[in-house]
Amino acid sequence: MECMVWVEGGEVWADDTGPAAGPGAGAGVDAPPVVLLHPGVGDSRIWDRVVSGGLGARYRVIRYDARGFGRSPKPGTSYAQTRDLRSVLDHFGVARAVLVGSSMGGSTAISFALEEPSRVAALGLVVPGISGYAGLESPELTEEIGRLAKAGDIDGLVKLGLGLWGAAGPSPDTEADEALRAAIPAWFTTFGHDTPAPPAFDRLGELDLPAALLLGEKDQPEVVRCNEEIAARVPGCHLVRLPAADHFPTLRDPDAVRDFITDLYDRLG
């Protein structure tokens, strides 16, 4: 079921599918739905092959496009990713969910789990970002993105993104190219509106829930190092390495991502 969900000062596109989908379904402790949070290098369509590959047949799956991405309107006011996630859960009557976030979505999932631990049954992190980790910041990259954006060079931005995050891709890397090309406008329409989350890296030890992290070993070395440190800091976190994946694991090996989510869900008993 596709719909627009009201969030503070705007709306986002969302989809609720799978067994017992619909408002109020799966809200109980016994059957929390899987909520998929997309990366900043794509929108919710980046999960398509994971969902159609069996995840959507087994679980109730909710996913949505963050503001400015995919089918969600660009923001006109300030907002926070965690507040939008809360609004989506409330709209669908979900009291407790298995959160699975990729990159930007992983950062949102971590921050939400720290803010509202009672609403997160388990935490799945796919090549996640995180607030409060200085090792991922690159002034040179920010400057280059700004230069290409000022020149209106979308092709240059896509080429830069594929070079940074798409080391495991084929040539031509059609799927990642399309995902990036669709996501890049949101980098700029959300700038100045998306309120940065409070630092979370030094609070990872507070998490007390089933957790797993999927790491793409062909990702940027800085991301790999960050992901290893996140997994080491989250108590009991299960680290899964994909040797042939980069920052687009849902495109490179959707079956492995599906199995990763299924294994995490099975840990709930």
Tell me what the structure shows:
The chain has 269 residues and is an alpha/beta fold. 39% of the residues lie in helices and 17% in strands. It has a single domain (2-266), classed as Rossmann fold, CATH 3.40.50.1820. Helix 1 (48-58) packs parallel to helix 9. The two termini are 28 Å apart. The model is unreliable at 23-29 (pLDDT under 50).
On the 0-100 scale, what is the average pLDDT?
A: 95
**Per CATH, what is the topology?**
Rossmann fold
Helix content: 25-40%
Number of domains: 1
CATH evolutionary superfamily: Alpha/Beta hydrolase fold, catalytic domain
* Terminus-to-terminus distance: 28 Å
Shape: globular
**Global Rg:** 17 Å
Largest sheet: 8 strands, mixed
Summarize the helix and strand pattern as letters: EEEHEHEHEHHHEHEHH
Name the CATH architecture. Answer: 3-Layer(aba) Sandwich
Q: How are the strands of the largest sheet arranged?
A: 1-2-4-3-5-6-7-8
Number of helices: 9
Top CATH class: Alpha Beta
The fraction of residues assigned to DSSP E strands is 15-25%
Q: How many individual β-strands?
A: 8
Low-confidence stretches: 23-29
